[in-house]
Amino acid sequence: MCEFYPMLLLPTHRSYMDFLLTSYVCYQFNLPLPVIAAGLDFLGLQFLSRLLRNSGAFFIRRSFGEDKLYWAVFTEYVQSQLLGGEAPLEFFLEGTRSRTAKSLNPKLGLLQTSLELYFTGQVPDITIVPIAISYDRTLEETLYAYELLGIPKPKESTSGLIKARSLLNDNFGSVYFNIIDPISVKEFCGNAVDRSLHSLEPRHRHVLFKTEVEMCSDLAGHVIRSHQRHMVLSPFPLVCLVLGQHLVEDYNGMMLDSIVLEIRWLSELIEHGGGHIVTEGNVSFNDAVKSSLSQHATLVTLQERGRLEVVRHELDESDFSHPNLRLLTRTIQEAAIHMRLYHYGNQALQLLVHFSMVALAIRSSQRKEVSIEELQNQYDTLRKLIQREFVFQRRRGVMDLQEAVGVMEVMGLLSHNDCNVLVVDSSLRKMDLLSSLLLPFLAGYRDAVS
Predict the structure, then answer these.
(1) SS3 sequence, 56-77?
(2) Beta pairing, strands 175-179 & 35-39
(3) What's the Cα-to-Cα distance from 252 to each of 50, 248, 258, 332, rounded to whole Å?
(4) 232-253 burial, b if ≥16 CB within 10 A, otherwise e?
(5) Helix axis angle, 141-148 relative to 329-363, nearest 10°?
(6) Could you tell me which residues come within 8 angstroms of residue 280 by beta carbon, excluding any fewer than 6 positions away?
(7) Distance of CA 379 to the CA centre of its chain
(8) In 10 A of CB 370, how many CB atoms?
(9) Nearest Cα to 237, choosing from 282, 178, 173?
(10) How far apart are CA 395 and CA 408, in angstroms?
C-alpha cells in the first residue's frame, strides 16, 4: 500500500518565470498544481496576481517582524494546506530572486513552519522535492545589473508588464527544469530529533527545539547544494567567467580560441564536481560555445577575426534617474557591462568555488607543496571570509576540502600523500586562473575595511 505524505516543492529562484514554470510542468504531466507562496509585491500586477491566485498562489509579507497574530494566522494557513494533502506546497527557499545568479543563503521561516508538522508528530513524514531551474538567458539580466548598482527596482505594475512584453521577441534560448530526487525528512533527521519531547509541551505553542532548528538549517543547506549540483548550464557562463577575469587586464576583449581552451577544462572540472554543461546535439564544443554566444548578442559579439568583445550601449539617463543616485551615466554604463558578465559567470563560479579556494590557499603560500593541515586552515579561513557570498553547509568543511582535492587530483591538477598536497607543474597556469576567481571578492572586502 502506497503512503502519501505532505510534499514541499522547493525550486531555485532566478527569474519571475519560476513562479509558473512548476505549475506548468505539473499541468503538462497531469499532476496536482502546487499551492505557491508569493510575495505581496505581486498584488500590484492585477492580471498576473489573478493568474497566480487562480494557479494556487497565496500572498505573504516579506517580513513578519513581531506581529504575533500574523505569524499565528500564517502558520495555521500553511499547515492546514499541508495537512489537507490535496496539493503540494511550493515556495522559494532563498526567499527572493537572486540578482547575482548565485545561490542565496536560505530563509528558514516557511521551512520551519512546514517541518513543525513532522517534529510535533502530526504527520509521519514530509517529502521535499528540490527543483533546479536554469536559463540560457535570464529575462531580467539588465534590470538586475541596475539594481546591483543601487538603482531601485521598479514597482511591479500591469503597465510595466505590458511595456516589457517586447522582450519576448528576443531569443532567450532554453529553460532547463531538473526535478531532483525527493528527500524524506524522516530519513534525513534519523535519530537526531526526538519528537516525543513535544508531548510535554502545550499543542498551541509553536516552538521548535534547538536541535530541530539546526536540522532545518542543515536540510536547507542540503537542498541548496542539491540545486547547485543538478544545475544545467550552457557554456556561456564559463565564457563570461573567463572574459570577466581577462577584462580586468585588457578591456579590448579576448580571442575565442583562447577562451575555448580555458573553459573546456573548467567545464570538465564542473562535470567531475557534479554539475552539467550542456552541448546540444553532436556539435563540437567550439560550435556549442558559438551557439551560446548567438543568444547573447546584446552583451558580447564575436568579431570577424575571432575576437570576443563586450557590447556597449548608449544609455538614456532618464531610465535610471533617482534623487539618491550619485553615479555618473558613464560609470553606470561601464559597470552594468561587468554586472551582466558577473551575473552569468557567477552561475559557473558557485560550482567552482571549492576548487578555487583550494587553488588560492595553495598559491597564496607561494610554494608548490603545502601540508594538508596548512591547506585545511587556509581553506577554513577563506570559507569564513566569503560565507556571505556563497552557501556552505555546516560541518562540511573537511569533507568539502577532501572532495575538491580528490576531483582536482583526478583532473591532474594536484597530487597528494598522507601529509602534503603538491601542485602538478603542468597545471600551474590552470591553478593561477582558479585562484584568481575569488580575488575580486577579497579585494572588495579589503577596500571596504581600508
Answers:
(1) CEEEECCCCCCCHHHHHHHHHH
(2) unpaired
(3) 48, 10, 14, 19
(4) bbbbbbbbbbbbbbbbeeeeeb
(5) 90
(6) 288, 291
(7) 22
(8) 21
(9) 173
(10) 22
Neighbours of 390 (CB within 10 A): 22
Which distant-in-sequence residues (6+ apart) come within 8 Å of 317 by Cβ?
329
In this structure, the number of other CB atoms found within 10 A of the CB of residue 315 comes to 14
Length of the chain counted residue by residue: 450
As given in the structure block, the three cell numbers for residue 200 are: 510535554
Cell numbers found for residue 339: 554586472
Render each residue's pLDDT in the chain as its tens digit; 450 residues: 456 789 999 999 998 888 889 989 999 999 988 999 988 877 777 777 787 788 778 888 878 878 888 888 999 999 999 998 788 999 999 988 899 999 999 999 999 999 999 999 899 999 999 999 999 999 888 888 888 887 777 666 555 555 555 566 677 888 999 999 999 999 999 998 888 888 777 766 667 889 999 999 999 999 999 999 999 999 999 999 998 887 655 556 688 888 899 999 999 999 988 889 988 766 788 888 888 888 888 888 888 788 888 887 665 555 555 555 666 667 777 788 888 999 999 999 999 999 999 999 998 888 889 999 999 999 999 999 999 899 999 889 899 999 999 999 999 999 988 889 999 999 999 999 999 999 888 888 887 776
The Cβ of residue 202 has, within 10 Å, a number of other Cβ atoms equal to 7
Distance CA 242, CA 224 (A): 25
* Residue 117 one-letter amino acid: L
Q: What are the E-state strand segments in 85-187?
A: 89-90, 127-135, 175-179, 183-184
| 39, three cell numbers | 510575495
Question: Cα–Cα distance between 404 and 120 in angstroms, integer?
Answer: 38
386 φ, ψ to 5°?
A: -110, 20
- Of the candidates 374, 380, 360, which has an alpha carbon nearest to the alpha carbon of residue 438? 360
Q: At what angle do helices 329-363 and 372-385 cross, to 10 degrees?
A: 160
DSSP at 133: E
Helix %, strand %, coil % of the chain (to 5):
50, 10, 35
Q: Where are the beta strands (DSSP E) in 94-206?
A: 127-135, 175-179, 183-184
Contact 206, 116 (CB under 8 A): yes
Q: What is the DSSP letter of 424?
A: -
166 burial via Cβ count (<10 Å: 0-12, 13-18, 19+)? exposed
State phi, psi for 178 to the nearest 5 degrees. Answer: -115, 110
